[in-house]
Amino acid sequence: MKILLTFFTVLFTAILPAQSFKNITENSKGYIGIGTKNPDALLTVKGSIHTQEVLIDLEGAVAPDYVFEKYYTGSSALRETYEMLPLSEVESFIQTHHHLPGVKSAQLLQEEGIQLKEFNLLLLEKIEELTLYLIEQQHQITELKERLQKLENE
Q1: 9 in the same domain as 59
Q2: d(C-alpha 137, C-alpha 62), whole Å
Q3: Do 34 and 61 lie in a common domain?
Q4: For the chain, what percentages of helix, strand and coil (3-state, to nearest 5) are there?
Q5: Within this chain, do residues 148 and 122 fall inside the same structural domain, yes or no?
Q6: What is the pLDDT along the chain (154 residues), one digit of tens a residue?
Q7: Are 129 and 152 in contact (CB under 8 A)?
Q8: Listed residue (144, 136, 121, 2) closest to 64, CA to CA
Q9: Which residues contact 65 (CB under 8 A, 6 or more apart)?
Q10: CA-CA distance, 68 to 147, in Å (whole number)?
Q11: Strands annotated E in 19-147
Q12: Which domain range does residue 95 map to?
C-alpha cells in the first residue's frame, strides 16, 4: 500500500505542474506567451487577467498638469505646444468626427489597441479640460445670477 501511495504521489507531483503550465510558451526571443504560441512582446497574454493592481511607470511621460498651467498662467513649461480648444470648436469637431479631438476614433482604437499609459494620460487631460469648462460656466452662471438679482432689485 505504501508503494502504491508513493507511486501516486510521485505521479501527481510530476503531472500537475505540467498541466498547470500547458498554456505558457516561450519563443526564441525569450518572449513569454500565455494563451498564445506566438508572443509578440516580453509578455503576451491572450485572454483576461485578474489582478488587484497595475503599476505603470511614466518613464518621462508628462502628466497633464500643463492644462491648468497653460490656463492660469498663459504658458506651460511642461508642454509648450498645448492649446485648449474653445468649447465651440470641440463641439464642431465632435459633430464632424464623432469623437473627441486628440482621441483616436473607435475604428483606430479597434485596429491599433490602446496604449494604457498614453490613453490614461489623455483621459486625464480631457478631465482637466472638462473641469476648466465647468469652472468657466460656473463663473458665467454666477455673473448672470448677480445681474438678474440686480435687475430684480431695481
Answers
A1: no
A2: 28
A3: no
A4: 55, 5, 40
A5: yes
A6: 555 455 445 544 555 554 557 889 999 999 999 999 999 999 999 999 999 999 999 888 999 999 999 999 999 999 999 999 999 999 999 999 999 999 999 999 999 999 999 999 999 999 999 999 999 999 999 999 999 999 999 8
A7: no
A8: 121
A9: 78
A10: 28
A11: 24-26, 32-34, 43-45
A12: 55-154
Alpha-carbon gap, residue 14 to 86, rounded angstroms: 66
My answer on whether 65 and 8 are in the same domain is no
Query: What sign results for the dihedral spanned by CA atoms 138, 141, 147, 151?
Result: negative
The set of cell numbers assigned to 88 is: 465651440
Please choose, from the candidates 129, 116, 44, the residue with its C-alpha nearest in 3D space to the C-alpha of residue 137: 129
Same domain, 138 and 87: yes
